[in-house]
């Protein structure tokens, strides 16, 4: 990696694409590397998530009854998903299973313990969403983690 790549901060629009999982593989690698080493940008990533969440809330209120605007994902239990912790930032993503779906969120079975309050990105079969960890309790083969999904979803490309 060049020095220029290390010192150049990630633009907000790129952070948004990062959350929505719409970056090319190449820029994803660059941004992952930057976020690992830059607290300013990984902090901004969490801010960006709040911002998107807020906007989603606003537009869902404005367009109440208009199913087109809100893109709810098709969620199913026992679906595999991949999970990444965004805050505190890690570029490590691992496979989890969705064991329960409710209106407010998901319960996942994960091999790694998650810290309550951390911000995570969940890539599901049809969509990508961010949310925060409400609880994490030991299970027979890992941990059950409850995730409150923030109300914006992006269909996977
Ligand atoms: Zn930065």
Question: What class, by secondary structure content?
Answer: alpha+beta
Taken from the alpha-carbon principal axes, the silhouette is globular
* Count of separate structural domains: 2
Beta-strand fraction estimate:
35-45%
Number of helices: 4
Bound molecules: zinc ion
- The name of the CATH topology of the largest domain is Thrombin, subunit H
Q: Please estimate the helix content.
A: 25-40%
The CATH superfamily label of the largest domain reads predicted glycosyltransferase like domains
Poorly predicted sequence stretches spanning 5 or more consecutive residues: 1-5, 66-71
H/E element order = HHHHEEEEEE
How many beta-strand elements?
6
Shape-level CATH architecture of the largest domain? Beta Barrel
Distance between the termini: 28 Å
CATH class of the largest domain: Mainly Beta
- Overall radius of gyration: 16 Å
Care to give the gist of this entry?
By secondary structure, the protein is α+β, with helices and mostly antiparallel strands. The protein has helices at residues 3-7, 12-19, 25-37, 39-62, and strands at 80-87, 93-101, 105-110, 119-123, 127-139, 142-155.
Verbal overview:
This protein is of the alpha+beta class and 157 residues long. 32% of the residues lie in helices and 35% in strands. The chain has a six-stranded antiparallel barrel. α2 (12-19) packs across α4 and α3 (25-37) crosses α4. Residues 1-5 and 66-71 have low confidence and may be disordered. The chain binds zinc ion.
List keywords for this structure.
32% helix, 4 helices, disordered N terminus, 157 residues, binds zinc ion, Thrombin, subunit H, 2 domains, 6-stranded antiparallel barrel, 35% strand
């Amino acid at each position: 990696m060049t020095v220029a790549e290390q010192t150049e901060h990630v633009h907000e629009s790129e952070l948004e694409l990062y959350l929505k999982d719409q970056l090319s593989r190449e820029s994803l690698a660059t941004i992952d590397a930057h976020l690992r080493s830059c607290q300013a940008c990984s902090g901004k990533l969490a801010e960006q998530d709040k911002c998107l969440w807020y906007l989603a809330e606003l537009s869902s209120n404005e367009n109440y009854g208009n199913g087109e605007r809100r893109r709810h994902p098709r969620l199913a239990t026992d679906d595999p998903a991949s999970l990444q912790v965004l805050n505190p930032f890690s570029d490590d993503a691992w496979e989890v299973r969705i064991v329960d779906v409710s209106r407010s969120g998901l319960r996942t079975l994960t091999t790694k313990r998650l810290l309550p309050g951390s911000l995570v990105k969940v890539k599901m079969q049809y969509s990508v969403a961010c949310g925060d960890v409400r609880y994490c309790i030991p299970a027979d083969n890992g941990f059950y983690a409850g995730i409150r999904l923030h109300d914006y979803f992006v269909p996977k490309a």
